[in-house]
Amino acid sequence: MAKASNSKRLTTPRWQIAADAFVWEAGPGKLVAVDKVASLPLPLLKGIESARETLMENSRRFADGLPANNALLWGARGMGKSSLVKALHAEINRTRKGKARLVLIEIHREEIASLPALLRLLRRQPRQFLLFCDDLSFDKDDTSYKSLKAALEGGLEGRPANVLFYATSNRRHLMPREMMENERSTAINPSEAVEEKISLSDRFGLWLGFHNCAQDEYLAMVDGYSAHFGLKMEREELHRRALAWAAGRGARSGRVAWQFIQDVAGELGKRLT
Questions:
Q1: CATH number for the domain including 38?
Q2: 17, 28, 53, 130 - which has most CB atoms within 10 Å?
Q3: Structural domain boundaries, residue 124
Q4: Torsional class of 45: left (φ above 0), alpha (ψ -120 to 50), beta (otherwise)
């Protein structure tokens, strides 16, 4: 009698293949379907037009089965990095049907070490998969970055042609500056001490920077949200309150603009749908 295997087999039920979005759960080794992705219409993302157009073109090529680059969206908090990924996924699929629709899979930072297993699961699937990791960064003594590094370009199998990886981070090199400086100062060969970790960001063909917005850009975000959701308030009053809201939080960003709009909509008894 053959001895039972203790290894965990990764399987994907047929019903999951038809979904357009999943969350990867490394523990049981399965994809959990997401019925509705929390995304905003792409035109509402103001102040990031250049990054928006670049990433959209890259994503469309990939969805069409053409060569495309992994992308690192880095920079200021609240400026629409993760919102952009979700919005372009919805926009690309708006006119596509069946297997031509792009699949978005979220993988949490804590489960990056399981990425090779996920890639093996997706390699033979007939659809295009966009893997997305929000707020990616690595701290001292964290070795899970090696799994990501190998999955992006290295390893014997390499990255499957039907898989692309997008990540957002507040750090351009995915590790804190003080950690880089500390390792350089204490290593026997400082120039090589952090080369392996820094080279991880080099695996991303696209580096898209997101920076704090100016007042005019912030107000344009507020105007865009207000018009889209039909909020009835005089523009001068809306701007006055929006600036006061931003001053109270010490920042101007897309996230702050959205939080302000939610406050105004609640006050006006307007649902944001």
A1: 3.40.50.300
A2: 130
A3: 14-210
A4: beta
